[in-house]
Amino acid sequence: MNDHAWIESFPGAITVCDPDGVIVQMNPKAARTFEKDGGMALIGRNLIDCHPEPARSRLIGLLTDRRVNAYSIEKNGVKKLIYQAPWYLEDGAYGGIVELSIDIPFEMPHFIRGS
């Protein structure tokens, strides 16, 4: 089995960019999510160019500061968790940002667990 085959069938959208914001990988769900913008043809394009302000400045900050950004959105009656985080190469060098976009229920349990 391909080490990354799970990415192809993962039910959330996965978009990966390099340290400059250039999209280097998308799974099929991400391509469908961004179909109107070009789908898989977005690979090789800069993520920064795909965002208006203030998202553009926020994204530049994420790329520069190498930090996590997590929030939820509602669009077309669907609530999603957006999780953007830095990723690193095997040698520890900064690789860029991975964005996960996952459909979540409007009402979701929250558990506080002890140690």
Describe this structure in words.
- Strands 2-1-5-4-3 form a 5-stranded antiparallel β-sheet.
- The chain is of the alpha+beta class and 115 residues long.
- The chain has a single domain (5-104), classed as Beta-Lactamase (2-Layer Sandwich).
- It has helices spanning 5-9, 28-33, 55-65, and strands at 13-17, 23-26, 69-75, 78-88, 94-104.
- The mean pLDDT is 93.
Features:
alpha+beta; 115 residues; single chain; five-stranded antiparallel β-sheet; Beta-Lactamase; 5 strands; 3 helices; globular
Give a short synopsis of this structure:
By secondary structure, the protein is α+β, with helices and mostly antiparallel strands. The chain is 19% helix and 33% strand.
* Rounded average pLDDT: 93
Helix content: 10-25%
Topology-level CATH name: Beta-Lactamase
**Global morphology:** globular
Structural class by secondary-structure content: alpha+beta
Task: Profile the largest sheet.
Answer: 5 strands, antiparallel
Strand neighbour order, sheet with most strands: 2-1-5-4-3
Radius of gyration: 15 Å
What is the succession of H and E elements?
A: HEEHHEEE
**Regions with pLDDT < 50 over 5+ consecutive residues?**
none
User: What is the H level of CATH, i.e. the homologous superfamily?
Assistant: PAS domain
The total beta strand count reads: 5
Distance between the termini: 36 Å
Number of helices: 3
